[in-house]
Structures are given as structure tokens and as C-alpha cells.
């Protein structure tokens, strides 16, 4: 078995789950004959037909709302948003209807909302977003954001089988850049469990999605140039968050930074910092620091985008500061 | 029609040609004509139950036993009851706030409704949601949320599941004149039409959305006309004539069941009370409410019809009314005895797994939580 890309891994998960469970179906814009804007759903229509691979109008509220209704009846819809930036058009459905359904009405919503996310691709302000923090604040939703091809497959299969609504963020920078050999058999990665992407003892970097790879690159540079042992934690799931993994790495290195591609204010790094403060403050030898995007819409032009998004050199600089603190 | 200032010109509206492809002209009421006398009396009982139960809720509201807002459907009982009556048991509908009558037809009980309004722990939502925002998939109704329009895509999704599984089931969703202005209405109706889903969309045109009259909601001549733009059938009926409501809805339900796709049904009615009980209706022209109350009350009209066509006597109706009151009295007594919810139940059931959240360690009044979480596990300790 050869390596497959992050994108192919997601596609493989969709095929396997549609094959396994007749209740699984896909809906979204241009996902049928065209195979989706990034070709994630390529081949699904030919195999499963229009009944289970539904091309929809440009109607995010209808896509997400109809997925919710079908999920009440035991279907397991996978709704594609052409770019995750357009999830804002379905925000009301997700936060007011879906996230509350089990709690207020005992109606489960076993559904997945997935879409290409993130920057580093010259996509400009409306094709590069990372809107995960907007949903972290909504009890009732789950959020996953894989960094590796193997996790992309395993988490997609877990998300489809989950009995709650899972927002599945796919990083489009990683779609064709990272590859893995898929684990044999029915590869399911549990939702809610982080992964130690690199073991270390001096400084911890807690991150997820594309910046996992930036952090790993920084860790290698820091080891090479400074002799620092850097641990990298890939959260994989943002909601529910793996508090145990966060506490474990804090207690191990006592110096922690959080890296995310999303903007800073109100971002996920702030939440993680608060949790560390509440649960393992006394284990810290330095303040928890953040490396994030600047608080601006993501600009298009390369010098602008590269400046706004967190880069390896930013992570290296902050790690050195933490190590010296 | 003698009330010139009224926003709804009933005669003019109902004489308009029907829009889309509503099928053969309805010269008669073939569906309503097939109802038995017993079924027609059931319609009457549901309408009477709706009105009397709401009157009881007003009394409880004034006693502050209803802790939230109270929403009346006075004058709209026929459109709620007549439309829901067109569904089979296996069909599913989603009501609006003025569709208590529809829910009663679908099997919701006065006891459940009373417990909901009184925020009781054994109410259908265990005190989590207000008023008639509750549902039961077994009996075939889904609780709405307050964001009007959202139920159209959701119910279209339920209809989609029926279509995919080739189940012989129809979905009915209510929307008001006001919420036809939402994006969710447009997206949901359009999706249902494209997918030819077994969905019936009832637009209850009761003249007002809170204080906003229909003329400020849309420039269209009628809500029925909107169906044409979606390529679906659109029909209109007198919403205060319970048999007309049943007939037009039944035709739409039959069309959906036969694979004919969705229908938009506009029912013309009138909201005689305010948006909620606190609303003094200062925005309503003088005399308008009184005209509808005296001339076009749905229950009065049906009582007259039953006497004329079914030979229903005043004694028969009085017996039904008495049984309705008896049922409401018993339900009120039982609901008053119901316990309020336990605070800790607020933390249960946000996710399937794990089912329960941990209380905040410092929260007063949650004794067990304080005992167990006086300090977080790792607070101030160095033992790892």
C-alpha cells in the first residue's frame, strides 16, 4: 500500500463510510459531476448515484438545515461547504438549531459539515478563513481539524459515525502536500484525543492543522541550532478539547506556547491559556505565549499574507524567548 | 367584506387565480366532503380545546404560574386544526407558535402544554424550552425554534430522508407571513422544489408579524404567488373555514404523497390577540379586531355549519365543551403538582457522549458539586 494524500485520505473515508452504511450521503455545491471544487468527492456520484450524492443550490442554510432534518431521521449526512468561509451563511442553523437540538428537543444530529479551510495559499480574505473559534463557543457542536493524512481519514470516519454534529475542517494547504500510508483495516481516530507529534522536554508547542507542520519545522531548527528539545502537541480535535494532553505537556516542559493560524483576539489560544491557568498554573516556569495571525482579514498578496500568518521564524523566536525565561 | 381598512381583502384575495399548477380547479371540497360527521366533530373538539386551553393559560399567566411569555392563536384555530387534520399519523409536521391546535391534532396533550408553559421538570423539554416549543417524532411533530424560517430547511431535510428511503410519508411545515421574508424560507422552499420533496408549506397570513402589517412585509400581491417563482404549486384558502383548510391541505398532502412535489398553501386568517400576551395591539386600526371577532370567528362559523349540515345540536356541542373543560381542569391540577426541574439536570444531554457535564467546582447551591470539586484536581498541588 502506497502513500496517499490528505485529500485522498478524506475521499477514501467517504467511500468506505458510504459503502459501510447506506444512511451516509453527501450533499453540497458542485460535489457530483464535478467532484467538488477540490475534487474531494470525485467518483462518489458514479458509484452511489444522485440519490446519495446531491448537488444543491447555493444555499448553505438549506444544505446544513436539510442535513439536520435528515439526520433526525437516522440518516448520516455529510454536507460539503465549497469553502469553509461560507459556513457563516449557515451559522444560524448550526448554532441555534443544530447545536441545541439534542439538549432542548432530544433530537440527535449525527451529521458532518466539512470544507476546505485555511490560508498559506494566496486565497485572499474569503477563501482562506479559519472560523473554528466562532464555533468553539457553541456547546453542542464538535470541531475537528486534522494535520495528517492518516488523521484526516480516521477522524472523518469517526465524525461520520459520531452521534452529534461534527464540524470537519480540512486544511487546503495540506490537501496535496502531506501524505501517509493508511493504517490497515478500519482506521478510526477517536474524536477528543490529541496526538504528540514530536516528543520533547524543554518547550511545548500546542497547535493544530497546518501550523503543526510549521511547529515541527521550527522544532527541528531549534534542536539543530539551540540544542532545544521541543514537544509538539497536535490537538486534532478542538471541541471537546483534550485537557489531559494539554496538562501532561505543561507538566513535562513547564514552558508552553500555543500556535494557530487563526487571528489572535478571541482565538482558541486564549481558551487554552485559560485552561492551563486554571488547572496547572503552578507547573509553569514562564507565561503561556501565543503565536497567531495578526488581527486582520487575510490579505491576498504574498508579502502581505506571509506577514500576517504565523511562520516558522515566529515560532522559533518565541520558543527561544520561552527557553530563556 | 365591510371593513375597508382591513389589510386583508378576503374576497379579492380568494377570487384570484391560483398560482403554479394546483391541479384541477376545486369547484367543490371533495376531501372535506368525505369526512364523517364524527371526524367533523373531532375538528370542532380540537378547535374548542385550543381556545379553552389558551384561556386557561391566560388565567395561569395572570397568576404568574406561566413564567414566560404566552402566545395566543385566538381566531386562528381553524387553520391550525384543519391543516394538521389532513396528515396521516406517520406524517411529520413542525408547528409555529400559533399552532397549538395542530399539535393537539398530532397527539400533544393539554398536560404536556401546561407543564411546558409552567416550566416544570417533567415537561416534554424538562424545563429547557418554552411554551409549545416541543416535539415527538413518534407522534410526528418537531418543535420549532424561535429563529423563524429555520424549520423550512430542517423539515425539507426530513422530507428528503423520506424520499431517499422511499417511505410513504409527507412533511408539513408552518410559516407566518412575516417569516416568508427570511433567507431560510427562500433557501428551504427552493431546495424542496428542486428536489421535488414531499413537503407542504403552510403560509399562515394572519395580517401581522408582531406589529408589522403584511403590506410592509412583501410587495407581492399574495404569498401564494411566491410559489410560481419556485416552480411549485401554490394555492390559497380561507383560513377561518376549517373545512376549506382541510380540503386544500389534503389536496397538497396527497400531491406530495403521490410524488408531485411541494406545495405552498396560503391560508388567510387574522390574529385577534397581540404577538404575545403583553402586546396591547396599539398598532391595530380601531374596529378591526371587533369585526373579525363578530363576523369571522372560525369556531362560530363551524358551529353554524355543523348545525345546518350535520344537524349538530347545542346539547351535543355543550357536551363536547364540558368534556374539554374537564380534561383541562384535570390536566391543570396535575401540572400544578409537577415538580420544578433539578438544577443539575441543566448539565445533562448536550452531547450524546459524554451525556453529562461536570458542574463548575465553585458553584454554590449544587452541594454534590461543591463536595466533589471543592478544588480542581490539580489546584495548588505538586503531586502531579
How would you characterize this protein structure?
The complex is a heterodimer of chains A (325) and B (384). Chain A is α/β, with parallel strands linked by helices and 325 residues long. Chain A has two domains: 3-181, Thiamin diphosphate (ThDP)-binding fold, Pyr/PP domains (Rossmann fold, 3-Layer(aba) Sandwich), CATH 3.40.50.970; 195-324, Rossmann fold (3-Layer(aba) Sandwich). Helix content of chain A is 40%, strand content 20%. A seven-stranded mixed sheet of chain A has the order 3-2-4-5-7-6-12, with helices on both faces. Chain A has a five-stranded mixed sheet with strand order 9-11-10-13-14, sandwiched between helices. In chain A, strand 6 (142-144), helix 6 and strand 7 form a beta-alpha-beta unit. Chain B is 40% helix and 8% strand. Chain B has helices spanning 10-14, 30-33, 37-62, 77-84, 100-105, 110-117, 151-164, 183-194, 226-230, 242-257, 288-295, 298-309, 314-337, 367-372, and strands spanning 92-94, 171-176, 199-205, 208-209, 212-213, 233-238, 263-268. In chain B, the strands form two sheets. In chain B, strands 1-2-3-7-6 form a five-stranded parallel sheet, with helices on both faces. Chain B has a two-stranded antiparallel ribbon with strand order 4-5. Chain B is of the alpha/beta class and 384 residues long. The model of chain B is unreliable at 1-7, 367-376 and 378-384 (pLDDT under 50). The longest helix of chain B is centred in the N-terminal third of the chain and has 26 residues, at 37-62. In chain B, helix 10 (242-257) links the parallel strand 6 and strand 7 (263-268). Chain B is globular. Chain B starts with 9 loop residues before the first helix and ends in a 12-residue tail after the last helix. Chain B folds into two domains: 10-341, Thiamin diphosphate (ThDP)-binding fold, Pyr/PP domains (Rossmann fold), CATH 3.40.50; 343-384, no CATH class. Classes of the chains: A alpha/beta (325), B alpha/beta (384). Chains A and B meet through helix 3, helix 4 and helix 9 of A and helix 7 and helix 8 of B.
Amino acid at each position: 500500500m502506497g502513500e496517499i494524500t490528505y485529500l485522498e485520505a478524506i475521499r477514501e473515508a467517504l467511500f468506505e463510510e458510504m459503502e459501510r452504511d447506506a444512511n451516509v450521503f453527501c450533499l453540497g455545491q458542485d460535489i457530483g459531476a464535478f467532484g467538488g471544487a477540490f475534487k474531494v468527492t470525485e467518483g462518489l456520484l458514479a458509484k452511489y448515484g444522485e440519490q446519495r450524492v446531491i448537488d444543491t443550490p447555493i444555499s448553505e442554510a438549506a444544505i446544513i438545515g436539510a442535513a439536520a432534518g435528515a439526520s433526525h431521521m437516522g440518516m448520516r449526512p455529510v454536507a460539503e461547504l465549497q469553502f469553509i468561509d461560507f459556513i457563516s451563511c449557515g451559522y444560524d442553523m448550526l448554532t441555534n438549531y443544530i447545536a441545541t437540538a439534542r439538549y432542548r428537543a432530544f433530537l440527535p444530529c449525527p451529521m458532518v459539515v466539512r470544507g476546505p479551510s485555511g490560508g498559506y495559499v494566496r486565497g485572499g480574505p474569503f477563501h482562506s478563513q479559519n472560523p473554528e473559534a466562532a464555533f468553539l463557543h457553541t456547546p453542542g457542536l464538535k470541531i475537528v481539524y486534522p494535520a495528517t493524512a492518516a488523521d484526516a481519514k480516521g477522524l472523518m470516519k469517526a465524525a461520520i459515525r459520531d452521534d452529534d454534529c461534527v464540524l470537519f475542517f480540512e486544511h487546503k494547504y495540506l490537501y496535496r502536500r502531506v501524505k501517509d500510508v493508511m493504517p490497515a483495516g478500519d482506521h478510526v481516530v477517536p474524536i477528543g484525543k490529541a496526538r504528540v507529534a514530536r516528543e520533547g522536554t524543554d518547550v511545548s508547542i500546542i497547535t493544530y492543522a497546518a501550523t503543526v507542520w510549521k511547529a515541527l519545522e521550527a522544532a527541528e531548527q531549534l534542536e539543530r541550532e539551540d540544542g532545544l528539545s521541543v514537544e509538539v502537541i497536535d490537538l486534532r480535535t478542538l471541541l471537546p478539547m483534550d485537557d489531559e494532553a494539554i496538562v501532561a505537556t505543561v507538566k513535562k516542559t513547564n514552558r508552553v506556547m500555543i500556535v494557530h493560524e487563526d487571528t489572535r483576539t478571541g482565538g482558541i489560544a486564549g481558551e487554552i491559556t485559560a485552561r492551563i491557568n486554571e488547572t496547572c498554573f503552578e507547573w509553569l516556569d514562564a507565561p503561556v505565549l501565543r503565536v497567531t495571525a495578526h488581527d486582520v482579514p487575510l490579505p491576498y498578496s504574498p508579502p502581505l499574507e506571509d506577514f500576517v500568518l504565523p511562520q516558522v521564524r515566529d515560532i522559533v523566536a518565541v520558543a527561544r524567548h520561552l527557553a530563556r525565561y | 367584506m365591510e371593513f375597508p381598512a382591513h389589510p386583508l381583502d378576503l374576497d379579492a384575495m380568494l377570487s384570484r387565480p391560483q398560482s403554479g399548477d394546483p391541479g384541477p380547479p376545486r369547484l367543490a371540497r371533495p376531501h372535506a366532503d368525505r369526512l364523517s360527521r364524527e371526524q367533523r366533530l373531532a375538528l370542532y373538539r380540537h378547535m374548542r380545546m385550543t381556545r379553552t386551553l389558551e384561556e386557561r393559560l391566560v388565567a395561569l399567566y395572570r397568576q404568574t404560574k406561566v413564567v414566560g411569555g404566552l402566545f395566543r392563536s385566538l381566531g386562528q384555530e381553524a387553520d391550525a386544526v384543519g391543516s394538521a387534520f389532513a396528515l396521516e399519523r406517520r406524517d411529520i409536521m413542525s408547528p409555529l407558535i400559533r399552532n397549538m391546535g395542530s399539535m393537539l391534532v398530532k397527539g400533544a396533550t393539554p398536560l404536556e402544554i401546561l407543564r411546558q408553559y409552567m416550566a416544570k421538570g417533567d415537561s416534554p423539554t424538562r424545563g429547557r424550552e418554552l411554551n409549545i416549543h416541543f416535539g415527538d417524532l413518534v407522534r410526528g411533530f418537531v418543535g420549532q425554534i424561535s429563529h423563524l424560517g429555520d424549520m423550512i430547511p430542517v423539515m425539507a431535510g426530513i422530507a428528503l430522508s423520506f424520499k431517499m428511503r422511499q417511505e410513504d410519508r409527507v412533511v408539513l411545515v408552518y410559516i407566518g407571513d412575516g417569516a416568508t421574508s427570511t433567507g431560510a424560507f427562500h433557501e428551504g422552499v427552493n431546495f424542496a422544489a428542486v428536489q421535488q420533496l414531499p413537503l407542504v408549506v403552510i403560509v399562515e397570513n394572519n395580517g401581522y408579524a408582531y406589529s408589522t402589517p403584511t403590506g410592509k412585509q412583501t410587495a407581492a400581491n399574495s404569498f401564494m404567488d411566491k410559489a410560481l417563482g419556485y416552480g411549485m404549486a401554490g394555492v390559497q384558502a380561507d383560513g377561518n373555514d376549517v373545512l376549506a383548510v382541510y380540503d386544500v391541505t389534503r389536496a397538497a398532502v396527497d400531491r406530495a404523497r403521490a410524488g408531485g412535489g411541494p406545495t405552498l398553501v396560503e391560508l388567510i386568517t387574522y390574529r385577534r390577540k397581540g404577538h404575545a400576551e403583553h402586546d396591547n395591539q396599539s398598532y391595530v386600526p380601531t374596529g378591526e379586531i371587533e369585526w373579525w371577532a363578530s363576523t369571522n370567528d372560525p369556531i362560530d362559523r363551524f358551529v353554524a355549519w355543523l348545525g345546518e349540515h350535520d344537524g349538530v345540536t347545542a346539547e351535543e356541542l355543550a357536551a363536547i365543551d364540558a368534556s374539554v373543560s374537564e380534561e383541562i381542569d384535570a390536566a391543570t391540577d396535575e401540572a400544578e403538582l409537577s415538580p420544578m426541574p433539578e438544577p443539575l439536570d441543566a448539565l445533562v444531554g448536550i452531547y450524546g457522549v459524554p451525556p453529562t457535564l461536570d458542574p463548575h467546582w465553585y458553584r454554590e447551591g449544587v452541594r454534590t458539586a461543591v463536595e466533589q470539586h471543592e478544588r480542581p484536581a490539580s489546584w495548588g498541588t505538586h503531586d502531579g
